[in-house]
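Reopening this ticket.

The earlier resolution said the output was attached, but the attachment link was broken on my side. Pasting everything inline this time so it's all in one place.
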Amino acid sequence: MPRPRRRCVDCHETWTAEALRRHYRNGCPVNRRAERKRRRKAEADLRRWRRQLREEEQARASLQPRVRGRRRAPREPTPPALIDRLRPPVVVYPMGSPEREHPDFRHDTPGAGPGPGSRAHSPRFAPDNNADPPPWMNGLTPRDYYAQRAQRALLRHGAFRLPDYHRLTVQAFNYKVDTDVTGRAYAKLRRAFPDRLNDLPMDPALQAQATKISAYDAHDVHCCVNSCVAFTGGYAHLEHCPWCFEPRYKPHPTHDRLVPRRTFRYLPIIPRLINMYRNRDMARRLRYRSRRRPDPQKISDIFDGQFYQLLKEELVSVDGNLLGHRFFSRDTDIALGLATDGFGPFKKRDQQCWPLVLVNYNLHPSIRTRLENILCLGVIPGPQSPKEIDTFLEPLIDELEELARGVPAFDNLDRQPFLLHAYLIALFGDMPAVAKLMCMKGHNGKVPCRACKIRGVQGPNSTTLYVPLSRPFDNNPDGIRQYDPLKLPLRTHPEYIEDAIRVEEAANNADADRHSRRTGIKGLSALVRVPGLVFPGSFPHDFMHLIFENIIPTLLDIWTRTGDYETFGLGDEDYLLAPDVWTTIAAACPLTGNTIPSAFGCRVPDLKTKRRERTSESMLLFATLIGPALLRKRFRWPRYYQHFIRLVQLINLCIDFEIAYADVQKIREGFAAWVKDYEGFYYMDDPDRLRACTLPLHALLHIADDIEAMGPVWAYWAFPMERFCGALARASKSRHYPYSSINRRVLQVSQLSQIKLIYGLTEELNLEERRENVRRGTGYNEYSDLIFVKPLRVQPIPRTLVGKVANYIANAIGTNQRLVQNALVGSCFKTWGKMQRLETSIDGDIIGGDLIRGATISRNANQTARNASHVRFYSRLSRWRWDTTQAIPVPDDILSYGRAEMFIVIGPSFFRRLAMLTREPEPHHHRIILAVITPFVQLGYHRDADLVEYRLASGNYAGPEIVDVTKVDCLVGRVMTELGDNYVVERTSVVGQMNLLDAAANPN
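Inline output:
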């Protein structure tokens, strides 16, 4: 049956639906194709790259080849292979030069980014001129400069203070948005407090006033009623969707005009960035990027990646034209990351909408992922997922081009006007989302990987493609039978551009489809217009989805023959967990929540009976905390457990807050060996077992390259996106018009954020306490980094502790123990039930760390309470032996574990009394605070699993130890197994250093 054909509204020729879409995206007629912005930018990249390719090859011939496995010194020149992937070599030729007329450079375009060539001889990398104007004048026109100077005068005279007649409106709007009450509940406030809230503004007047006060509103972008595309770019003039052919407009119900059937509400980014610098506190926080002092031996943020380092050397190019400044050449330049994902507002997979959010990398990692700092660009309405998501990004791309040129703004920190620049350097999400962003076929394509050109293979009686390293049964005569995991055929930016243009220039649909299947690329994404962005270097893999939503669940399903692997194998494999063993392990997961502090994360649900409750966070906690303990001694052959432990160790390396440069090669080789062993254990080169070799498994081989290029995985994993989607899912919304409710919600949140920034009301309008806020308690000068929290008792020291406390004090101040003991008897001391460690943020703010609960003083009657009493501390008694229950004295501090019981304050009044008894002329002036800890009786370290096991004596702890509270290091958790083994679990990675949860953790 012939495909239906439709007529182009421009050239009036008839085309099939697929050809018509290419027709509109590329330009109509053919001679207008080169006028498309994305084509101009993409072809500029190829022109420069091709011309310098020969020079780069000659330069590389003189370089020593990089040997896999050799440790290279940090900060040595970037490996050529990595440079090819991140930035193609570039060179500039003046207009009219013979080189530009050569037919080989027909696709020549201005620059996709910095290259490794000799930059000193290239005009793109000319040194700074010492006669440059001051940074706040550079690039500003006189009109812009004086306009911003006027803003400085207004700020100085208090023009941006909220007028009193707007204060009630702002407070009401803040309450409504912060609490997310329904309109009906909000309207009842005036009737509930008739004498006090008569003037409370009501909807819709409240929304109109908030829009006026914030001077911020959304831009409506017409889109398909089924959310296939947005009518932007090549589709801007269409009146029907090029995918489903639904009409764009409908008649207005009361006026004689047409209105769009559906709109995408885009929230502009430029006004928000300008207002950030107008707020003095936020302007100070935005200096994190320029003020951070990187460790040359470690990778601790996205700015330590080679991509950012190379980008800083390049001149900015917009629409093929070079500008006069480099990327991130000024302290005020902002780095951004884009994330997107589909989520169901009502937890239904058949109804999805797609939020678009920006992460502001100029903020410190500890605060950049908070909800108030995530910048939402809008939510693509559902219920279907977009066919061409880049059409919804056209307004953002236009703003990014404007920001690359520079936008006049005022810096309230330096009190100077300046030209604001912001650059998008990373895009991340799950694999389907990134495939949409890059216009690739994704996991269903014959070349499914976005980072390399590995080809998929089919199993028997299956149309699904998989990507094992070994495929001895592959019938393709040109196919590779065995891929080297350390030498995969990586994609580069020029190759991506060339392949995408070849698909778009295809003469017919069959030719386009053939090129697309061969390369995995469906066309040229509109994102090629973004200055500095490269394919695939700017699209690192999302570690959260790879590991915690794919690899770990897949392993569990294979071990238990459940889920998608219920029919996998024959059922007699030696890696399978017995059904009763798996039932026991799964049931133990939620119980471990009782012995693991709430600060560590959520409770892990029963992984067998409550599969739908599994989340990325719970799988992270299972893999890194409780899984190694619960799975120990459960497999018939230890090699499967050791294989799992190797994965856990690699995960811990990757999610660490800082990664040593030497560890990157360890991660690369570790994942390569782990994937090969995985295929040997579960795939076995058997075509019937191909479905074990999923694309996420293959993507593990690119994690080290992503870290080397873009920094630690936590800088671009999808936890912030998941947090934002969770907040939208919890928000009140209409069942009949859910997407309109969501649009209104994200607009109100953005408007409230602008009001706080413009008028400096961040603290005044803050209605809730965060988890890291300092608890109300008492601090002491001698222990400035600690605070002690109620319950508080003033009581004598328990009789069983008097001797040990006296011994500690006598050794600490150098006096007689018997006299100290006599002074202690009958004296009362403040005894605290909780202690919190204080930390200082990058901005100098004091924030609260672990809150340790003294088990004796701060008992919790709730049997399901999360235990936060067990700690790691330093002791002079070693318990690291299985052959004795007696502690062995050691000369130096050694790590130990136990339960904190109470915190006793020995104050100056006691030392004055002691001085009278000892007849010393000067009493001890400094206060001493002691922690009473009952240690575990025995401790053992299992090197194979990196686990600390502990034992009690008939269920009892050892006798109490007395240590100074500064010797208490951190909270720990415990995992008890059905086999009678007890393990200590610690929070040693980024999970404990960054606030992954938005709301305060429930202590119960």
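Reporter confirms the inline version is readable. Residues 778-971 form one domain. Confidence is low (pLDDT under 50) at residues 64-76, 88-131, 992-1004.
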